[in-house]
Design a protein that fits this description.
Blueprint (H helix, E strand, L loop, with lengths): L3 H13 L5 H8 L21 E4 L2 E3 L2 H12 L4 E7 L5 H9 E8 L2 H13 L5 E5 L12 E6 L8 H5 L1 E11 L4 E8 L5 E9 L12
Parallel strand pairs: 3-4, 3-6, 4-5, 6-7
Antiparallel strand pairs: 1-2, 7-8, 8-9
The structure holds S-adenosyl-L-homocysteine.
């Protein structure tokens, strides 16, 4: 179930789905997705589906992890990256392999602990996790070359726009019933370009933090 063949099949499927960035594909190939889900679900870990991780949250579908990583990279090495919505840390692990440094914020404390364990096991040493409300970004560490939001926002939080470098990229699902994946590029101090890409399905971006 977690054999090399099963994992190779996932990679082939990602290529068929249009993922072209070899840096992203090789990062995904190197990260065992089954360690991020409960043992009972590990048989499904290499299917192209999101799976429950407890606390009403999910691990993202491999295709969307690949797609958002590819959009953020845009064929260039990534410097300092902020992720909003760590969850179990799967996307964070992929980002850690394709970026210089990664900061990831999660609002549910037990998920921060869970993700920390997984990232330690995979020796992702360039990652720092924070238990906080991602709507605020991480102002003390801004600006970021790239920001990825892995929960659906009703609108793009202004704080995240403020915390982008000029030339920086933000990938974020926007919407409530219908969600659209959006790419925002910061062109200058005051100009941003927004591109709507494809429909997606994420858990909602909520406000505040939760200790349980
Ligand atoms: N990146 C994850 C996806 C996890 S699901 C992966 O690789 O699978 C989205 C996560 O966003 C959930 O864990 C949820 O608790 C978190 N989240 C929702 N609103 C948030 C907010 N305002 N700040 C930080 N995390 C948030």
């Amino acid at each position: 179930m977690t054999s090399q063949r099963t994992r190779d099949r996932m990679l082939n499927r990602l290529r068929e789905q249009g993922i072209k960035d070899e840096v992203v594909l090789s990062a995904i190939a190197g990260i065992p997705r089954h360690i991020f889900v409960d043992e009972a679900l590990s048989i499904r870990a290499y299917e192209d589906v999101s799976l429950p991780i407890g606390f009403g949250q999910t691990i993202s579908q491999p295709y969307i992890v690949a797609r958002m990583s590819e959009l953020l990279r845009n064929g260039q090495p990534l410097g300092k990256v902020l992720e909003i919505g760590t969850g179990c840390g799967y996307q964070t692990a992929v980002l850690s392999r394709i970026s210089q440094e990664v900061y990831s914020v999660e609002r549910i404390r037990p998920l921060v602990m869970k993700a920390r364990g997984h990232l330690r096991e995979l020796k992702c040493v360039n990652v720092k996790l924070d238990h906080a409300d991602g709507n605020m970004g991480l102002s003390q560490l801004a600006p970021f070359d790239a920001i990825m939001v892995t929960a659906a926002a009703s609108h793009i939080p202004q704080e995240l726009l403020n915390q982008m470098t000029i030339g920086g990229r933000l990938v974020i699902p926007v919407g409530t019933d219908e969600q659209i994946l959006c790419l925002v590029e910061r062109l200058s101090a005051s100009e941003y370009r927004q591109t709507k890409l494809e429909t997606v399905k994420f858990v909602p971006l909520l406000g505040g933090t939760s200790a349980t």
